[in-house]
Amino acid sequence: MLPRLASTDKVDAMEVHLIDGTYELFRHFYALPSAKDSEGREVAAVRGVLGSLLGMMRAGTTYIGVATDHVIESFRNQMWPEYKTGVGVDPQLLSQFPLLEEALRALGVVVWAMEEYEADDALASAAFLAQDDLRVERVIISTPDKDLAQCVVGTRVVQLDRRRRLERDEQGVIQKFGVKPGSIPDYLALVGDASDGYPGLPGWGAKSASAVLSRFGKLEAIPSDPRDWQVNVSNPKGLSEVLNSKRDLVLLFRDLATLRTDLPLFATVDDLLWKGPTTTFPPIADRLDKASFSKERVPRSS
């Protein structure tokens, strides 16, 4: 059963929680058995996401925003035709995005359903806006997506993988990728990101990219002559030749990897304060509570 929560007047130290709703929906879709509502529509993933967020609220989360990819495609598909699309995504998963957004709004949660931009851009913009408020002690971006590592700032803006219960601050980003958060787009441009559909540069891997960028920081700062690198990498001459011959391409990849932080998502952090469910939540919760679960797990392609 989905728990019911009343409005809360309790406001703890101001921590802002930004949730990757797309990831959460995918995660619960593949983790839970199928559940159908009275009209035969798949709702298990929505139930899972709501239950997870309600658990956060019971634990004291008060400032919260959720970003979703209402449309999988974005402006980046115009920049790079091979960028990720909704092709191949299970229709029963895609069909739950509108219901998730409706249910979260009924619960009283701020939702950014992205169309031109991606959910990651919304999370990045929200983090940028929230950290600008001196009342905010910490901004917690809940997603395992490596793109969001570029938004980490010291110990004030951190990234959290809720499934693995792994929190990563700036030192954690450096330990994981070998570069500072500000170099993450450059790093991804070199090594590529298969989940987003761009390949990076031939020959460049995680070790070579982190070694070079840990010294130079940005792509533009990497000398064209590998003799000036003074870093320990294999085949620096070959890496340099590829980089020099594909400068325009790698800069395009970096642009793809760079999250936008200027979206006007809210006027003040106070807009994210959760005040309890709206009057439209009970019928939605009732619909989800009455869903019929399959006796067996439904096989799904991952």
Strand content: 5-15%
Largest sheet: 6 strands, mixed
Indicate the mean pLDDT: 93
Alpha-carbon Rg, integer: 21 Å
Strand order of the largest sheet: 4-3-1-5-6-7
- Taking pLDDT < 50 over at least 5 consecutive residues as the criterion, the unreliable ranges are 1-12
DSSP helical segment count: 12
Helix/strand class: alpha/beta
Question: How far is the first residue's CA from the last residue's CA?
Answer: 27 Å
Percent of residues in helices? 25-40%
Q: How would you spell out the order of helices and strands?
A: EHEHEHHHEHEEEHHHHHHE
Shape: globular
Kindly state the number of beta strands: 8
What descriptors fit this protein?
302 residues, alpha/beta, two-stranded antiparallel ribbon, 12 helices
Kindly describe this structure.
It is a single chain. The protein is α/β, with parallel strands linked by helices. It is built from 12 helices and 8 strands. Helix 1 (21-31) packs across helix 2 (44-58), helix 8 (184-191) runs antiparallel to helix 9 and helix 8 packs across helix 11. The chain is globular and about 65 Å long. The two termini are 27 Å apart. Residues 1-12 have low confidence and may be disordered.
Describe the structure in brief.
By secondary structure, the protein is of the alpha/beta class. The protein has twelve helices and eight strands. Helix 2 (44-58) runs parallel beside helix 5 and helix 8 packs across helix 11 (247-257).
